[in-house]
Amino acid sequence: MNEFKTDAMTGRELMAFRIGTQEFCVDIMAVREIRGFAPATPLPQSPSFVRGVINLRGAVLPIVDLSARLGLGPAEPTARHVIMVVQIDSPLGNQIVGLLVDAVSDILTVPGDAVQPTPDVASEMAKMFVRGVLAIEGRMISLIALDNVLPAVECEAA
Fold first, then answer.
1. How far is CA 128 from CA 3, 9, 60, 125, 145, in A?
2. Which residues is 133 bridged to in the sheet?
3. What is the pLDDT of residues 138-158, one digit of tens each?
4. With 50 as the cut, is the pLDDT of residue 41 above it?
5. Fewer beta carbons below 10 Å: N end or C end of the chain?
């Protein structure tokens, strides 16, 4: 598992984004770029949360509908949606993937101890995708475990 290595004094930077009314975040070091929404070319027999692929400067980039992957239902993309291009450390090595999200909201600098563990009442599926929860400025933000967004078997399918 790709745990964050930081002490409580140095802090870490996280990129916050929205899916529906919920806020999530990822380690900013995993984010390569943010692009406007572009329709993806579907791939036959791909998992339901893989919208397809786009051309990113000559490279084929798989697009994951993060809303569908997290069990929140498929997104209905509009011009306001964005694709966060992230690097995922998977069992197959480093992989660049586009995550379809509603909007990127801000960059958070939080102390290393600000991330609370995922509550025990959460399902095992929720714990698989959510590494922890931040309670800041009256907001509850779930920290996404990027290494579980595309499990090894589904990486091969994408």
1. 13, 27, 27, 5, 7
2. 116, 142
3. 889 999 989 888 765 444 444
4. yes
5. N
Pairing mode, if any, of strands 59-65 and 93-101? parallel
**For the chain, what percent of residues have pLDDT higher than 70?**
83
Rounded to two decimals, the pTM is 0.84
Cβ count within 10 A of residue 151 = 14
Q: Are 101 and 17 in contact (CB under 8 A)?
A: yes
Could you give the CA distance from residue 91 to residue 149 in angstroms, rounded to a whole number? 12
